[in-house]
Amino acid sequence: MLSNKLLDLEERPQKESGFSLIELMISMVVLSIGLVSIVGILTYVTRANADSNITSVLATTIQTEVDQLRSAHWSVNACDPALQVGGSLTSNSTGYFTTLTGTAAGDLIVRWQVAQGASADYRIVTVNVKQALYSADFQNGMTVTTIILRQ
């Protein structure tokens, strides 16, 4: 009877459960590739989010400056100094620039240039907002051109 039991043990196939070493190594490689991809995507998304925030601050600042210039008084008899023909987008011309400090995008330099339109009834105003310490993506800042009509 003992010999029959030994034969039964030898003939019976042994069922193993679990992962083999090769299966474990393959799953680790696949998991590693997935994690590296996620880190790459995370880096891209973080940079895109920062660029979006800077763009938003620059656009808001430009809109605020354009609104201020549009509300400036310009009539046949008088003209606000900020709407006199002149200014520069590349250097700080007195009366045609301002500096904003402590914004979410850092310190900003706002410059504008006023040009006479084809008739005396309108002026072409170009406003540029640039970071004082700009990033590579925003070397030129943001520029908007608008027309202001005499009141």
Helix and strand succession?
A: HHEEEEE
Q: Give the termini distance in whole angstroms.
A: 117 Å
The biggest beta sheet is recorded as: 5 strands, antiparallel
Mean pLDDT across residues: 89
Report the oligomer: single chain
Low-confidence stretches: none
* Gross morphology: rod-shaped
Structural class: alpha+beta
Strand-residue fraction? 25-35%
Gyration radius over CA: 34 Å
**Total count of helical runs of at least 4 residues:** 2
Overall structural domain count: 1
Total DSSP E strands: 5
Share in helix = 40-55%
What this model shows, in words?
Helices cover 40% and strands 25% of the residues. It contains two helices and five strands, in the order H-H-E-E-E-E-E. The chain has one domain (20-149). Strands 1, 2, 3, 4 and 5 form a five-stranded antiparallel sheet that branches. The chain is rod-shaped and about 105 Å long. It starts with a helix and ends with a strand. It is an alpha+beta fold and 151 residues long.
